[in-house]
Amino acid sequence: MSTSLLYHGFGIVGYRYVRTEYREGDVIFTVSRKKFGFRCPVCKSKRVIRRGSFPRWFHSLPIGKKATNIRTEVARVECKDCGIVRQADIGFADPRLTYTRALGRYVLDLAKYMTIADISRHLALSWDIMQEHSEEISAKKISETES
After folding, report:
1. Does the keyword Zinc apply (predicted)?
2. pLDDT tens digits for 70-123?
């Protein structure tokens, strides 16, 4: 698999492909961030030092009926300007969320035609993850009916 598929298919930029695993019917892509370009997530300074990393998993767009996950090591960075130690920004997912932006857009598109419960069953996502989207889905439906 190439990095090009990660970019065009899943919206993942600034990462390189490492490997693919198949577990219990799921596809797991392991990616690693390129070593350059870290910035402070608060003040956006380039004067940062890496302070370790930790693994994170993200739900991503399905491939057919197979669920896909993105696994990566997220760096912790210490900023020399503001002094904080935080998780580096993840280019393909919002902070504190367990799904990619591409999956979020897909859920919003499906919400035009399906209920949240149907989407949850279709994507094999927990109700908690779908609940994170429910306010955004409701706001989008309201704005579409007003226009």
Report:
1. yes
2. 999 998 989 999 989 988 888 898 888 888 999 988 988 888 898 888 988 888
| Beta bridge pairs of residue 56 | 72
Measured between alpha carbons, how far is 16 from 113 in angstroms, rounded to an integer? 35
Estimate the share of the chain in helix, then strand, then coil, as percent rounded to the nearest 5. Answer: 30, 35, 35
SS3 23: strand
Which region, left, alpha or beta, applies to residue 11 given φ > 0 means left and ψ of -120 to 50 means alpha? left
Tokens representing residue 20 in the block: 């693919």
Minimal CA–CA distance to 11: which of 133, 137, 102? 102
3-class SS at 33? strand
For residues 144 and 131, give the distance between their C-alpha atoms in angstroms, rounded to a whole number: 20
For every residue of 43-108, which 3-state class applies, written as one string? Answer: CCCCCEEEEEEEEEEEEEEEECCEEEEEEEEEEEEEECCCCCEEECCCCCCCCCCCECHHHHHHHH
Helices and strands, number each (H, E), in the chain: 4, 5
